[in-house]
Amino acid sequence: MIETLQDVTASLPPLLQWLGVVLAGAIPFVESYLGAVIGVLAGLPVAVAVLAAVVGNVVSMLVLVLAADGVRSRVGRPRPEPTPRQQKVRRAFDRYGVAGVSLLGQTLLPSQITSMALVSFGAPKKLVIGWQTVSIILWGAAFGLLAMWGVDLLAAA
User: Fold this and answer.
1) Is the pTM here over 0.90, yes or no?
2) Contact 61/111 with Cβ under 8 angstroms?
3) Residues 6+ away with beta carbon under 8 Å from 153
């Protein structure tokens, strides 16, 4: 799937390649970190690749957080028994808080799923949106830089 996204992005006219990265960044499990890599490998400058991937990831996360908050406010109690994955996220939330889960959560789950879970646990949506945005930017920038350095190493070899 990553190769397909990279091929599609690289095949777009140069002025539209950033749009391919925005769309890739909006996909769970691709997000800002792999979206930035796709953009760098497609030939975009690292800053453009990271920014495009971050925008896609943040927009999709915002849509899902706002939807989860809307559902939570309408549904209320009682709740069904949580799944094992939800229990795992809940334990992490109780232990590390919104900031910790947002920053470290992308190692386990997409930011979209993590952010919806945090809101469903009762975390304030503004806090979740803020920390998720910080996390998305940091992960996207880190992977974008790693991709750039990797491309530079391959070019030098």
Assistant:
1) no
2) yes
3) none
Give the Cα separation of 91 and 86 in Å (integer). 9
Instruction: Specify the pLDDT at position 79.
Output: 64
136 Cβ partners below 8 Å, 6+ apart? 31, 32, 54, 57, 58, 61, 111
Sequence-distant (6+) residues with CB within 8 A of 30 are: 1, 2, 5, 24, 38
100-126 pLDDT per residue, tens:
999 988 888 899 999 998 998 889 999
Q: What is the mean pLDDT of residues 132-157?
A: 89
Residue type at position 72: R
pLDDT, averaged across the chain: 88
How buried is 48 (Cβ within 10 angstroms: 0-12 exposed, 13-18 middle, 19+ buried)?
middle
The whole-angstrom separation of Cα 123 and Cα 73 is 12
